[in-house]
Structure formats: structure tokens, C-alpha cells
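Box S2. Input/output pair 1.
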Amino acid sequence: MENKTVVVGMSGGVDSSVAAMLLKKQGYNVIGVTMQIWQDSAAPHEGGCCGITAVDDARRVANQLGIPYYVMNFKEEFQKEVIDYFTEEYLAGRTPNPCIACNRYVKWEALLKRSVEIGADFIATGHYARIERLDNGRLAIRNSVTAAKDQTYALYNLTQEQLEKTLFPVGEYTKEEIRAMAEEAGLMVAHKPDSQDICFVIDEDYSGFIEKEAPGRVPPPGNFVDKDGKILGKHKGITHYTIGQRRGLEIAAGHRVFVTDIRPETNEVVIGENEEIFTTEVVCDNVNMMSMAELKPGECVRVKAKIRYNHGGEYGSIEALDDGKVICRFDKPVRAATPGQAMVFYDGEYVLGGGTIVGR
């Protein structure tokens, strides 16, 4: 694409590095950018997507590729849209997905805005996904060629305007092919491990992180109760728990029990049997439709829906409700639909849309 400029979000990992390399080979004017998003109070994982080594590795790769490279400060946006959101959701007894918020409001909204301001035509990342224009004229995200590394779930919230200016160069390849290309090109990150955890929380200590972000506001220990309100024991605080959790409950029930509900208004964590966390109906709000326009109230569409990132998906029908929410009625029960997580609808290989789970 001669004379077209693309800003590539470079995390210092192999995927975004190869994305930049592929786009340069395709003729784009490529600019590498690492988003400085970590806060002074929240040192990130050293090897994470926004970790301490990200800038050094990304700069070295940019030098290898012969492209200009910059570090852009997005601390304010990340604090507001990701860290504050993450903290408030946990305080309210929900389990958020900060990567989805980061994608929508930082990587795309903030980075895209600043990229356009400096004259770029597109932004690109190393996500394993594809973008296609459908017969109805709308743009939709399509699964990557490899199901083992599909990242479309975390991208459902992107708008049509954002998709118009987005490129996903690695979506046509498998992870093994990406690493092989990096190795052949001599990129120093060819065998760098993938980041796995939430980048701004050390050692998965969510409660400790929330205590630092909201001192004095973290709910105190309270009661474990059964569905009828009978007290079963003491919990450490609702920020320690999520729906479906079994480990770390420290309850002598004599058999396996699970978190079935979190009640922030009474500071209770409800404990029950495994079968109690299965449901055939899940409701979501903050709905973003992608491959089709908004659903009209009462309109039903067949979908395959995922209720968490690593959920294989289950078939069902979605229906728009009068209040703007969408309900999915699954053909088979799904386990541990968790308020705060995303429910993403698929039409075959394409993202139809999605929303934030609010109840069962």
C-alpha cells in the first residue's frame, strides 16, 4: 500500500513485531509505537504486553526493520478506562475483563485518535483475527486461521469506524508460522514467550491491587451463606471471589462446593452445588453489534455465544429486550456465566456482536 501510513502498536512481542514486518513488506509506511500505560503505583509484569522490557524489545525490533519508533504516553487513559474500571467492577462484586476495555478505549480509541492526528491512515496490532466487509456493507471481525490462537472474543466491542482504520496482518497465519517468519528475519523476539496474565496485576493478587487502588473502600470479610441465607462460615472479602470458584474457599463442607453468587449489598458470598451455576439464559447490556445493525426489541437471531475467553461456545438464540439489553437462550446449559465478563455472539466465523453479562 504505497503512500499509506500505518501505526503499529508494538508490545515487544513476536506477534506485533511480525505484524510490522509484514506491513512494511506490503509497501506501507510503517511507524512503530509502544503505548506507555503503566502507572507509577502499578509496576507491570516484566515480560507482559505492557511490561518493563516492552519498550526495549520493541525499539530493537524497529531498528532491525528500519522503521521509525516512538513511545506514546497513555497513562491517563489507561488509568481511567482500564484500572479504575477494573477496580470499581471488583468492588461491585463483578469480574471484569480489562483486556476488552483496553482494546476498545485505549488501543483503539486513544491510539487511533493520536495516530490519525499525526497523519496515519491505519493502526495495526498483532492480534490473531481478520477483518472482512460483508455483503450487507458492514465490517466484521472473522476468526483467525488458527482456532488455537483466536483473539476475536476480546475485540467484539470495536466500532465500524475503528474497524475501517484497522489492520490485523497476523490473522492469516498460525503462531508457528509467525515465529518461523521472525526467526528467518533474525528478529530477536522470535522465541519470546507469550504474555498470559493481566499485565498490571502482579502474581494474580487482585485483592492486593484493588486495596492499593481504592484504600479504605475494599469490602471487609463477611459471611459465606447458602441460597437460603444460612451462614456457612467467613469469607475474606468479596474481591477474592468469582462465580464458579471452588479453590480457596476454606469451607469444611465435606464435598466440593462452589461460589454461586456474590451479593455486594449484604457483603455475602453464596455457596452451593455445581449444578446451581448452570443456566440456559444469560442477559447482557452495553451491547455492541458488529456484523449486523442493532437488534430491534423482540427480534431473535441464532448464534453461537461464548461467555468467557476460554469458553468453547454454545448455540442458542439472542433476543433484544425493551431496555436495550440482550438475552441469550442457550440450547444447552452453560456454566458460570459471570457478571462483568463479556458474552460474544458469533455467526459462523464472524463476530455478530456482544455485551457485558449482567445476570442469569
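Box S3. Input/output pair 2.
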Amino acid sequence: MKTIDALGIECPMPVIMAKRVIKEGEEKFLVLVDNEVATENLRKIAKQTGFDVAIDKVEENRFEVTFTKGQTAEKDETKNKAYIVVLDSNMVGQGEEAFSKKLMESFLVALTEQDQYPEYVICYNLGVELTTINDHAVEDLEKLALAGVEVLSCGLCLDNYNLKDKLRVGEITNMYRICELMTQYRVVQP
């Protein structure tokens, strides 16, 4: 049985690692994690993908999560509905700045692992830093762009933050186009 060692690895990577193994076709595998939040997140992905899951607490900070193919996957009514992702900041939420920026990077990593990609990723205000000067974000946005996702950055915003000549992924757009897309698609914002 394949074992995934996710001990000491922060969310959302244990879930992403499990999902990759599921995509490889494994029908039974073990995931090692060090916290209960990770076990609950793994339980949810198991239910969504048609796996039974057994969780064993081996030690204080060590859990073994066994996935076994079996149940019918939970039906997700939102599947196959086109959506766009709108990033109006270089961070998620209003918390501590460095942590909030790390959350944004985690969101983008998780976005690259979804079964269905957005049609567009739109960046405006400080979100344009994600297409210009944030190396981790640029890397993930490039993956999406290579898969056919259109990455758009607001030209006025790029000008405002003196980043127009630093655009590394996607194209420049305007607020009219951003508004148009936001009225035509389901909008996802972290």
C-alpha cells in the first residue's frame, strides 16, 4: 500500500498530495499527518472522491489516514459550471500581513490542483502584484495560463503601482472588461 508522508506539511498540501495519488488510480493508500484538522480535510476529500476513510491516532501528533476505494463520490452540483477567480489583493483576509500573503499563495497552489480550472483569473488593485513581483504566484498563474486559463491584470492598477513593465504572466485589461466578465460568470474570491 502506498504511503504519503505529510507529517509537518502545512494545509492544503496533505489534501493535494492525496488527490494526486487518487488521480494516479490508487485504490488504497495511507496518508500520515500530524494534526486533526488535516484528518478532517482528508475525510472530506475522501467523501468527495468516492473513498472510504479510516483515521487512527497513533501518537499525540501522528495520525494515519487510510483511503480505500469504495463508496460513490459525493455529487457536486457546482461541477462543470464556468467560473472566474478575482484577486483584488496580494493577500487573503485582513489578518497578519505575512500570513495573509502566504494564504494567497496557498490558494493559488490549490487552484492549480482543481479538477476544473476557471475560465479567467482577474487581478486588480494590489492583486496585480501576483502577476508581476510575487515569484510563487507567478509560477502558479503560469501553470494555469499554460492550461488555457486567461490571466488578466488591470492596466490602471499596474500603472498605479508602477508594475506595468514587470508583468510576467497574462495580459493587460481594463475595468470595463473586468466588470463585464464578473457579470457573466460565477465569481470566486478567496
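Caption for Box S3: Residues 132 and 168 are 5 Å apart (CA to CA). The longest strand covers residues 51-59.
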